[in-house]
Write a structure and sequence with these properties.
Blueprint lengths: L1 H21 L4 H51 L13 H12 L4 E4 L11 E6 L5 E7 L6 E7 L17 E7 L19 E5 L6
Parallel strand pairs: 1-2
Antiparallel strand pairs: 2-3, 3-4, 4-5, 5-6
Helix pairs in contact: 2-3
Length: 206
């Protein structure tokens, strides 16, 4: 009797094993799994892209802050003037050379329409003729957002409208969304154009 019970148990195990050999996922089960994966991807990809763009904007801002600190140091050491009269290569080019020496991890270029900032690690530079002001611009990678920092020891005329905030004394932070290849310190967009936001103390919100 005991042996017959063991035989029946073994027969049942063999039957389960045989059934498992041919067992698999049904088409509906596979479709449900694929649907779940598609939903997860639809949620994750936009979130990842949003975080990446935000990080690129923050990188551009950080590089501009670093450039501004070095520029202000040069300003103080040069009798409070952004014009380096000891270097006979032009007002802005002199500052570009000095900034490149002070911060070799960043690229600096004299701001012009033909030579814009090409990325977050490239800073476009413009210096006012009287030495009282400097403008810095950086393009955030992948977002097309152009970020600006303008530091004025006295009132300057960076834009065409006299009512624009960055023309007054102080340090101004600006953002022009989706400006792309036109991002340059040599051409500061007008505040009244509606595409740029200026404020003091910190960069505008993303």
């Amino acid at each position: 009797m005991f042996s017959s019970a063991i035989e029946r148990l073994n027969d049942r195990r063999d039957a389960v094993g045989d059934t498992g050999e041919d067992a698999g996922f049904t088409l509906i089960e596979l479709m449900v799994v694929l649907l779940i994966l598609a939903i997860l991807l639809a949620i994750a990809i936009p979130t990842f892209l949003g975080v990446t763009k935000s990080a690129n904007d923050r990188a551009a801002q950080s590089n501009l802050n670093t450039a501004l600190v070095n520029a202000k140091s040069i300003f103080q050491n040069n009798s409070q003037s952004y014009v380096l009269t000891t270097v006979a290569t032009g007002v802005t080019s002199s500052m570009v050379s000095s900034l490149a020496s002070a911060e070799p991890n960043l690229g600096f270029t004299a701001g012009s329409a033909n030579n814009p900032a090409s990325g977050a690690s490239q800073i476009s530079v413009a210096v006012s003729a009287d030495g009282n002001g400097i403008a810095l611009a950086a393009l955030a990678k992948g977002t097309g957002n152009c970020w600006y920092v303008i530091d004025n020891a006295a009132s300057e005329s960076w834009v065409s409208t006299t009512a624009s905030n960055p023309d007054t004394a102080g340090t101004w932070y600006g953002e022009d969304k989706n400006l792309g290849a036109a991002c340059t310190a040599a051409s500061i967009p007008s505040y009244t154009s509606g595409s740029i936001v200026w404020q003091q103390s910190a960069f505008p919100s993303l």
